[in-house]
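Inputs:
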Amino acid sequence: MTRTKMLLAGTALALAGAATPAMAQDIGACLITKTDINPFFVKMKEGATAKAEEMGINLSSFAGKVDGDHESQVAAIETCIASGAKGILITASDTKAIVDPLKQARDAGLLVIALDTPLEPIDAADATFATDNFEAGRLIGAWAAATLGDAAADAKIAMLDLAESQPSVGVLRDQGFLTGFGIDVKDVSKWGDEDDPRIIGNEVTAGNEEGGRTAMENLLSKDPDINVVYTINEPAAAGAYETLKAFGKENDVLIVSVDGGCPGVQNVADGVIGATSQQYPLLMASKGIEAIAAWAADGTKPEPSPGLEFFNTGVSLVTDQPVDGVESISVEEGMDRCWG
Amino acid sequence: MSVQPVLKARGLVKRYGRVVALDHADFELYPGEILAVIGDNGAGKSTMIKALSGAVQPDSGEVLLDGKPVHFSNPMQARQHGIETVYQTLALSPALSIADNMFLGRELRKSGISGKLFRAMDRRRMEAIAREKLNDLGLMTIQNINQAVETLSGGQRQGVAVARAAAFGSKVVIMDEPTAALGVKESRRVLELILEVRDRGLPIVLISHNMPHVFEVADRVHIHRLGRRLCVIDPKEHSMSDAVALMTGAKTPPGELAEA
Amino acid sequence: MPPASQDNYESDLGAADGQVASFEDRHHTPLQRLQHFLHGNPAMVPVIILLLSVIVFGFVAGGRFFSLFNLSLIMQQVAIVGILACAQTLIILTAGIDLSVAAIMVLSYVIMGHMSVTYGWPTGLAVVAGLLVAMGCGAVNGLLVTRIKLPPFIVTLGTWRIFLAIVYLYTGSQSIRSQDIDAAAPLLKFFGERVSIGGAVFTYGVFLMLGIFALFWYILNRTAWGRHVYAVGDDREAADLAGIRTGRVLLSVYIVAGLICGIAAWAAIGRVGSVSPSSFFEANLNSITAVVIGGTSLFGGRGAILGSLFGALIVGVFSSGLKLAGADPQWELFAIGCLIILAVALDQWIRRVSV
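Outputs:
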């Protein structure tokens, strides 16, 4: 009995501790990420928290349990509206289904900003601060094709994707890569429908090392002559590399990836990954906080980048083996700007 | 009776909140006898039996085994003193084999390194003893000692539980409603078993609602009422209707039998 | 005076069949015979399914599937979930369930990784620290189940999240890179070392899995503790009355399961190469899947530990076979789902043996 009471008291204290700052400041903002497991979102949260502290904004953070956890995000939006916040920053797991709950938020006078992943339709948010995931994929695809040169015509490509449910970030990077490589992607809204014989197969990795390892094993069993590996992110790439090492093929295969986290860029330096497209989650988050502050102050909304429907926070190809026709930055520059 | 009781209890009290399950209950079991305990539902006979077998710890009162006070804080301690109980639920593990069940909680280990260091059970010896004990009670056609208990009929399971108690009980065997769940023929077989166990010298406490069974096998009948012993009667001198009248309170015990 | 009701109402029973409480053996149809056989040998169902699926995929997916190399690769792929399934089997045999096995494993390898790579402890000491943490996690589960008497499902639903939260808070979700482990503590990857036998390639992790299953087969079937695990899961009250200290047995089961998760953690570093906080997210459910397909009853007390090994292999064979046959990953989910339902339905049928 006493033990139970102590537990309850402990929980209550913890809750009270978390809730106290809410009373200190009056401009509220919410950050809703896909998960709080992925270092990318962990970093995004750090960027937002730092900026919010600097600007005197009270930030509450929410996240889904896994990528694709739509319900948790809807609940977070409802909590956020109820808390009287001025704006929401969201990386949506389900970019279509989230539109209705967000409309309620906008009707309630909140500024809604999509981070990283645009909503469908894109104008369901007041503004979008995103990296162009398709462009990120296109860059590594073009780099891989240029690096192979003539051999690109009979490359054997392994596609290490994110999840069976085909979340949009996974589709955009995948289809961007294939487009950059020069492969007909058929329906650009999904992966796996391509019939180009150079694609050995698609496997899902959940975006972590263990998934990358198993997926690569399965694709190598299908065809041991794979020489190009697209990976959804750098942890999956690290897992795939372990498999290639186990098969004694680590020097014959080109691995490309997306993210630009510090361990990932380090892996580019170590020759594990050939090239990676670096994104800037800190920048997205701090821009988002600034926009909410401006909205709270005088009702202005941020403008998109010229010629685009969203504000592009940029993407750079990081590699030490630059190729003609594909702009890239060096590993040193990548290390300077990396996150996590 | 100048013989010392094997098992004796004095002034047992057990309360559950405001309910008094045992109200200064006394109990005596003499060597070589079958003592039946009867009483209406809620009279507290189960609680008394559990107090004697270590499954319940009385709030006050004492239990004497061979005249010496004993205190059991769990059923295992009662068994280490030679008191075995066949519970109404039988306390058998349905998925385990007959041999496993007979030795549950007191498995035999092999001698030497395999037993001491690797703690290996001596299955062969356990099976042999189980077989022998079942044979002693005429329960066994030998080959199925590794059969799971759940594949046995109700009477067969009761047989296993009785054999287990008889094999390990050196002082007392307590049987809680051994015939309640059984058909006529199976009950008969179990009654024969009870008599066989008694004939091998073990005193038995038999808790039962079944008056014909009680009056058939019991040497004495302990009548429990309102948490205590009302009286003890000789089944050869009283009828079943006397017993029922006493335990329901329709009749008060004659002067010479009444408890102080 | 003889009691009036002592009339001989059972006097005609002598004419009835005396064979009541003897033990007899009678089976009727071949189907019932099969049912009885499977009831007595619970690991046979998964063995049969495993053999059938290997043969079927051998035809469907051809030589690429049926090569020694691929079959040994499947064993490498299931090694970690297999070891976790061993821990899970112990818990499920006690009529519990452990949703936290994978979280304990991840926490344990994060400790091993950070102690050795970040803080420079000797690898052996770091591994021991990881194992102790894993046993501690098991003890937390066990104490909540036995002392506070909460249902295992709820306890481990909670600790699953708590252990993972500790992992994410501690690591910031950052992996320790394979190259950094090679430099600082290569022994952490011991179970990723490989040996070739003919065309087959095994990691030490595969042998570890087989060794753990052999050990726990022995413990469950040849020691008193093993019998008590079954008895507690089968009918805890009966076990209590039979004199088993069921609380202690349960607590020890959770601690031992934690230890097995810790051993899995060491093997997992070898398997994945890096120390990855975000990996093995579904390994808890996969371990339950292996146990269920392996024929162990979720109601406790019934099942064979080797069944879980075969269950894990069946899942591995299906997923490899379907991939090599060119099926989309979605079909793998579908097939495993069907297997689970089939396995439980079969278990129910086997448990309905008539006497």
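Remarks. Chain C is about 70% helix and 0% strand. The longest helix of chain C spans residues 246-272.
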